[in-house]
């Protein structure tokens, strides 16, 4: 049986690949191909999953919904022509039979419907937590949004309720419950974003060390701009914890060059160390010191950094969500964009609840961290909230098993 995966973003590509890896265990007869609607589909290429149709990296990196200027740049870069070609490929693929797995938001979902094939949908982008929590609507939620009834608009729900849409996998329990009210075949099997993420008990060489994760994001030049704000914030942290060893763990995306991050540290009185540190399992990590603080730049110990850190200073998307899912607090602040603007940061606080504290500027970060760590009740609420918002590990396997059962039924018919 043929299976086509549609996704619209690097994070969505990774989630799709995780599901496919588990699905192949149950259905090794599947002929799988993929069409990344946004980007070049690197995650698929790394797993040797063949791509169909034309793929192209747009100037916005997929963030056209945040800035009309980004949309115009993409239009000039060939977005309209690319979309038409991709739609033609999907419709032709649908005529030949098979099944479609759409991963992301309404765009791959719409493509799946237009194909004429049977399909399933993994909703990674939207959550009811943007509009409400367990107690009801958020104050920021507009009258129009409340009238719509769900973070998924009527068109989205219509596409999910079609007979050819066999199943929907929302990202959390609350969203699943709301969609089920509209007679949509939605199942809460967890969020694949948390797969492989787990707490580990790692011994810190220095007792009483406070470990702080630094997440500047993964896109250039925005990540470098965010880095400057984050390093300014570390000054306040050091000032608030003069009698306690500090360990800053900077998880830098593998695709970025480290030189700009290193140079900025040197301009801010951080001293580079030559000896290899034993704080993390990465002998290529770059180490710096300043007063009672150690800072490590690593591109090879992402999950270890998330597991080890007590709290994060973050200006990122997916990584922030994963850290919250581990039950830990995040301090964030708005950047200059195109992704991490005030609007994005504010929306993230709604999505992740009181696990994320939004401050206006770097100078406020140190005081905020001290206040949180001195409030055990708040820390406990954050731990519970993270699990509720992000779910448990193993979602990709559970989704794959459900899909395998559906594909078997379709094959028999």
What labels would you give this structure?
single chain, 413 residues, alpha/beta, Rossmann fold, 2 domains, eight-stranded mixed β-sheet, five-stranded parallel β-sheet, globular
3D structure, described in words:
- The protein has 413 residues and is an alpha/beta fold.
- It folds into two domains: 2-195 and 393-412, Glycogen Phosphorylase B (Rossmann fold, 3-Layer(aba) Sandwich), CATH 3.40.50.2000; 210-390, Rossmann fold.
- The protein is 42% helix and 17% strand.
- It has 16 helices and 15 strands.
- The strands form three sheets. Strands 10-11-12-9-8-13-14-15 form an eight-stranded mixed sheet, sandwiched between helices. The chain has a five-stranded parallel sheet with strand order 2-1-3-4-7, with helices on both faces.
- Strand 3, helix 5 and strand 4 form a beta-alpha-beta unit.
- Helix 1 (10-26) packs across helix 16, helix 9 runs parallel beside helix 10 and helix 12 packs across helix 15.
- The chain is globular and about 70 Å long.
- Class inferred from helices and paired strands: alpha/beta
CATH architecture descriptor name of the largest domain: 3-Layer(aba) Sandwich
Top-tier CATH class of the largest domain: Alpha Beta
* Low-pLDDT windows of residues: none
Task: Tell me the domain tally.
Answer: 2
Distance between the termini: 13 Å
Globally, the shape reads globular
What would CATH call the homologous superfamily of the largest domain? Glycogen Phosphorylase B
């Amino acid at each position: 049986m043929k299976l086509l995966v549609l996704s619209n973003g690097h994070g969505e590509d990774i989630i799709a690949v995780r599901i496919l890896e588990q699905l192949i265990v149950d259905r090794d007869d599947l002929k799988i191909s993929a069409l990344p609607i946004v980007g070049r589909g690197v995650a698929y290429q790394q797993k040797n999953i063949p791509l169909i149709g034309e793929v192209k990296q747009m100037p916005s990196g997929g963030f056209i919904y945040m800035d009309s200027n980004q949309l115009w740049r993409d239009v000039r870069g060939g977005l309209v022509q690319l979309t038409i070609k991709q739609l033609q490929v999907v419709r032709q693929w649908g005529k030949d039979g098979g099944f479609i797995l759409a991963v992301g938001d309404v765009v791959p979902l719409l493509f799946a419907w237009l194909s004429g094939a049977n399909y399933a949908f993994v909703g990674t982008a939207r959550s009811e937590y943007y509009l409400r929590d367990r107690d009801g609507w958020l104050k920021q939620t507009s009258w129009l949004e409340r009238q719509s009834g769900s973070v998924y608009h009527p068109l989205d729900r219509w596409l999910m309720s079609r007979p050819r849409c066999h199943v929907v996998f929302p990202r959390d329990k609350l969203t699943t419950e709301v969609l089920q009210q509209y007679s949509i075949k939605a199942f809460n099997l967890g969020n694949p974003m948390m797969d492989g993420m787990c707490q580990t008990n790692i011994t810190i060489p220095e007792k009483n060390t406070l470990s702080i994760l630094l997440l500047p994001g993964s896109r250039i030049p925005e990540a470098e701009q965010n880095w400057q704000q984050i390093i300014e914030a570390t000054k306040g942290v050091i000032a608030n914890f003069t009698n306690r060893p500090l360990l800053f763990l900077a998880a830098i995306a593998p695709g970025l060059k480290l030189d700009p991050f290193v140079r900025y540290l040197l301009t801010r009185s951080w001293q580079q160390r030559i000896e290899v540190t034993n704080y993390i399992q990465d002998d290529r990590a770059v180490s710096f010191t300043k007063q009672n603080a150690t800072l490590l730049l690593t591109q090879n110990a992402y999950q270890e950094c998330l597991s080890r850190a007590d709290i994060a200073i973050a200006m990122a998307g997916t990584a922030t969500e994963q850290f919250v899912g581990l039950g830990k607090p995040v301090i964030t602040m708005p950047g200059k964009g195109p992704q991490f603007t005030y609007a994005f940061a504010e929306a993230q606080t709604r999505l992740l609840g009181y696990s994320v504290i939004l401050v206006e500027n770097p100078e406020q970060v140190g005081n905020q961290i001290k206040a949180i760590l001195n409030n055990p009740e708040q820390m406990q609420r954050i731990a519970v909230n993270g699990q509720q918002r992000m779910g448990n590990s193993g979602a990709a396997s559970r989704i794959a098993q459900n899909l395998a059962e559906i594909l078997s039924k379709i094959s028999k018919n």
